[in-house]
Amino acid sequence: MKKVHPDPKAALDGLLRDGMTIMAGGFGLCGIPDELIDAIVASGVKDLTVISNNAGIDGVGLGKLLETRQIRKMISSYVGENKEFARQFLGGELEIEFNPQGTLAERIRAGGAGIPAFYTKTGYGTQVAEGKETKEFDGHHYVMERGLFADLAIVHAYQGDTEGNLIYRKTARNFNPMMATAAKVTVAQVEHLVQPGELDADFIHTPGIFIKRIIHVPVREKQIEQRTTRKRKDAAPAAAGGGAV
Known about the structure:
Pfam families: CoA_trans. This is Succinyl-CoA--3-ketoacid-CoA transferase. InterPro entries: 3-oxoacid_CoA-transf_A, CoA_trans_fam_I, CoA_transf_BS, NagB/RpiA_transferase-like. The chain is an alpha/beta fold. Helix content is 18%, strand content 26%. It has a single domain, classed as Glutaconate Coenzyme A-transferase (3-Layer(aba) Sandwich), CATH 3.40.1080. The chain is built from 6 helices and 11 strands. Strands 1, 2, 3, 4, 8, 9, 10 and 11 form an 8-stranded mixed sheet that branches. The longest helix is centred in the middle third of the chain and has 12 residues, at 101-112.
């Protein structure tokens, strides 16, 4: 089966529909499947439930889907960088299911492993636990969390081969690997696409069996979530000694 498609639109052809659940990988703006997100924006599908650690920033990544009002619900952990997200949430226009970050990661991992639910201490006695089953084990209280499984997962990888074996780079290993396993169909965008056998098998993070479609995105603008700079030092002082007093 040929997995490589010529562009994001072709890779998502026949997979998108209103009301579906989509997982989008990455952390902040690192390792986000931006080309695939743009294709979802262009498709016009709406009433989406999106599972992602964060919602990008205004005008970048998932922030674009928020601006076009295509997202009905977000299942997320950290959303503090997106003003439009905050505006829609505070205005009652967007449904939010907040998760502690580790809990969100484990819910996704559990979904990919076929585990329907698990218990965690995190969130017990807080708003996170409201409406959820709790249980005591060995004198400690736990909250039951459901595993997450999506209709579609979109991920970004640094390297991949045409069979779908993927290698992620640094911060992009947050959420991308587990999301690739936790959906009916996973589509990957890959920066460096090679032939089977060219990747070191010991370094593959996602086996190709999880990846159904691939696009090659060799040239990308690297977005920065928060640009922090330091003032340049003043010009170096003149060398000491030798001058007139």
